[in-house]
Design a protein that fits this description.
Layout: H1 3-18, H2 20-33, H3 35-47, H4 51-64, E1 68-69, E2 74-75, E3 80-81, E4 86-88, E5 93-94, E6 99-100, E7 103-105, E8 110-111, E9 116-117, E10 144-146, E11 151-152, E12 157-158, E13 167-168, E14 173-174, E15 182-185, E16 190-194, H5 195-198
């Protein structure tokens, strides 16, 4: 086993030990406030931990709180994971100041800075005029799925599933599912290309 691998593992172990008190605090707050509010509180605090040490501690805390994070996941400064269940595949990077509600994100993805991933287009009802929107409820139990090897550009808003190997342009608003390999952009996001047609090496 290489020295760099040992150092990384030692760093991960140290990060886990450093966040253990926070994890215990989460367990206590969860019993009082409920899982969702306790998770969000822990995530907001962890978002402001700086540097590489902060990234390691963020990853460790989210694992303590029940998120499924693969090997080499990077959660940049300011990134908030808001609501379980959460699953992020190996070597995926979540950019600075991004927000992820309950979602399942595949491996080898790049999620740009300021991206917002929410639970679909039906989060808030607004069909009644005699009741304030905040009291009309909505659907908050849908887990958005993003496939493997995706690129989500800066400041995109994701409200629907994104297929494997897809690309979402910066600032796009995804309200309809994105098929595998497709390139989408705009508000609402529309298909503007296919990665297979631009590939230097053909995909079988």
């Amino acid at each position: 086993m290489g020295g760099s691998v040992l150092i990384k593992r030692a760093y991960e172990w140290l990060a886990g030990a450093l966040v253990a008190p926070r994890a215990l605090s989460y367990v206590i707050r969860r019993s009082v406030l409920g899982e969702e509010r306790a998770y969000l509180g822990g995530s907001e605090r962890a978002a402001n931990w700086p540097g590489i040490t902060g990234e390691c501690k963020r990853r460790a805390l989210h694992r303590w709180m029940g998120a499924s994070l693969g090997r080499g996941v990077v959660l940049r400064y300011g990134c908030v994971l808001k609501r379980p269940p959460l699953s992020i595949g190996s070597y995926t990077i979540i950019g600075y100041h991004s927000t992820v509600q309950q979602a399942r994100i595949g491996r080898d993805c790049i999620i740009g800075d300021g991206v917002v991933i929410v639970e679909g287009v039906r989060q808030h009802r607004f069909d009644r005029l005699d009741v304030p929107i905040r009291e009309q409820g909505g659907t908050f139990d849908r887990q958005v799925v993003i496939g493997d090897d995706c690129l989500i550009g800066t400041a995109a808003v994701i409200l629907a599933d994104v297929g494997n190997h897809a690309v979402v342009g910066a600032g796009s608003v995804v309200v309809h599912p994105v098929p595998d390999f497709k390139i989408v952009a705009g508000n609402p996001a529309r298909i503007i290309g296919d990665r297979r047609e631009r590939a230097a090496v053909p995909v079988g």
